[in-house]
Amino acid sequence: MTLKKELTRIAKLDHYVRPEKIAGAIKLDSNENFALDREFILQVVTEAARHVDLREYPIDELEDLYLQLARYTGINKKYIGAGSGSDQIIELLLTTLAANSKAQSRATVFVPTFSYFISRCELHGLTVDKVSLDKNFELDIDRFTKSAKKSNLVYLCSPNNPTGGQLPKKDGVELLDRLDDGKRLVLVDEAYADFSDYSLAKEATRRDNVIVLRTLSKAFGLAGARVGYMIAGEKTAEVFRSTIQSPYPVSTLSLTIATRVLEKVDIVRNVIENIKGERKRIFERLGETNGIRVFRSDANFLFVETGKKYSAIARALEKEGIVVKLLGNVSDHIGCMRITVGTREMNDRFLECVKGTAS
User: Which residue pairs from 285-290 have beta carbons closer than 8 angstroms and sit at least 24 positions apart in sequence?
Assistant: First the structure.
């Protein structure tokens, strides 16, 4: 394929559209953790900036991060690989383990799910088979497995973005068991697992074909620092760290910030529990509103179907300076929105606006 034809093909693909940043808005659209105190993060950043020497490449700082991630996850550092956000890790895995192999030309995902992954597969020329979730956004394991066994790449987002639900653990383990034949790579995206009840990370350490993706952008409030990590079998993790990943993938400052936040993990855990409490409160309040359906979530956001009230609620939120992710129609669900769980004050403002519009 010529360069011109390839650029023409790529130009037709879905692409990221940078959202408008509105000064003073209540930002509930990107699943950032505003419940984690800004002063806490600022203090960590200040301490880190005083500690590091940006004239040097990050060497010890990466090792320090691995030690803290091992403590946090309870998993030996030999199974862990770090990156500049989990997005960068996805990109590296696609380019080295999927798209570069003629045999690995098909991916299976369930939908709706994290659109970035689908877009990157399409960018690299992979055929993507999309298995629809049911009307309650639950997965038919048998139907999914049938497609997955024809693919060389399988993607499981759990908890799922944008719907919020996490696969039942027994289903997740069963899927990994069914696909444990060495013929495909299984990516389990756990960007929101810190807000859920379980992780499949330890399952990944026992298998050669499973990689669990994690991030510090959500629960740890470090979206701007761009620090992610993966957990995999020992050989996979070693090859990733030594060969696939670039020598210095994350800046010295970001590594030090991430390490110091992990050292104060008890503060983060308390905030996570507060978010889970707020998530339950918002779920119950929205569930009492006529014409609105809210779906169970294991993440730091809620997926809401507003039906005929979609336009009115969207206008009211815009008028009040409240920004949420407006999704429109998703599968057979009409007028959908994804709402990040913020501080109690932010959440109250959102609930009051919706109640005043929908009642």
Answer: 285/351, 285/355, 286/351, 286/354, 289/354, 289/355, 289/358, 289/359, 290/358, 290/359
Q: Find, among 237, 189, 185, 250, the residue nearest to 214 by Cα.
A: 189
CA 241 to chain centre: 21
Kindly report, residue by residue over 248-303, the tens digit of the pLDDT: 999 999 999 999 999 999 999 999 999 999 999 999 999 999 899 999 999 999 99
Residue spans of the domains in the chain: they are 19-37+266-358, 52-263
Domain boundaries 52-263, CATH class? alpha beta
On average, the pLDDT of the chain sits at 94
Read off the DSSP letter of residue 124. Answer: T
What contacts 42, CB < 8 A, 6 or more positions away? none
pLDDT at 96: 87
Contact 123, 98 (CB under 8 A): no
Q: What is the pTM of this model?
A: 0.94
- Widest pairwise Cα distance in the chain: 59
Mean pLDDT value across residues 222-247 = 96
CA angle 165, 30, 331 (to 5 degrees): 45
CB 173 within 8 A of CB 182: no
Q: What is the mean pLDDT of residues 18-27?
A: 79
CB 268, CB 219: distance < 8 Å: yes
The CATH fold of domain 19-37+266-358: Aspartate Aminotransferase, domain 1 (3.90.1150)
Nearest to 201 by CA among 75, 65, 89, 87: 75
